[in-house]
Amino acid sequence: TAGIDLGRRMHKLALKGMTCPLLTRSDGTKMGKTESGAIWLDPKRTSPYKFYQYWVNISDDDAGKCLRFLTELEMAEIQKLDESRQAEPHLRSSQKCLAEQVTRNVHGAEGFAVALQATEIFFGSEIHDLDDSQLLDIFADVPSLSASRDRLGSNEFTMIDALVESGLCTSRSDARRAIEQGGGYVNNCRIDSLDYVLTASDLASETVIVLRRGKKKYALIQFANA
Fold this sequence. Notes:
Elements: H1 2-11, H2 48-56, H3 60-70, H4 75-87, H5 93-122, H6 132-138, E1 144-148, H7 159-165, H8 172-180, E2 184-186, E3 189-190, E4 208-213, E5 217-224
Parallel strand pairs: 1-5
Antiparallel strand pairs: 2-3, 2-4, 4-5
Helix pairs in contact: 2-5, 3-4, 3-5, 7-8
């Protein structure tokens, strides 16, 4: 308002100002770069996947406000989402719609597609068409192991070795049981053979193989040139 007052005093101008309320969470804290858990519009600072995840994990209490502030949906559609959120909160329809709308607006259709694919991968979809940076972003909080790329050409690096060395299994016998029970995966594809040998064809990206035991236990092996 200081500029408005200055213009009036110096030039007798009738200036007007426009303000926008701060976007705050239900607990009163603001959504901004000074708060923990903030996100950036620049994909180099916050990837489309993490950007999408931020919005899809917004609380029920904040979802309605964000739909009204950050999307161009018709009010009737937002009200339907409000009703769905009250009746079936477990479906998270509001959050999914919010995440899609905002991600499309900021990162475009391609960015949204990458974010959705990454989300599906983390919940078990087959891994393909991703590069190292995208995979490492998706699995940023997953244990990882570095290994020489030569091991992929040795014809000796077995699935059992990988499960044990990655820490997903405590012993070779534990790894055998995991595979026999259908719980050993490479890039989310189940491995049924106890004699399966990992090769360069198993790389999910330039240098990474994604291992999984059971439904949710992941580990990465990143292969570097010797």
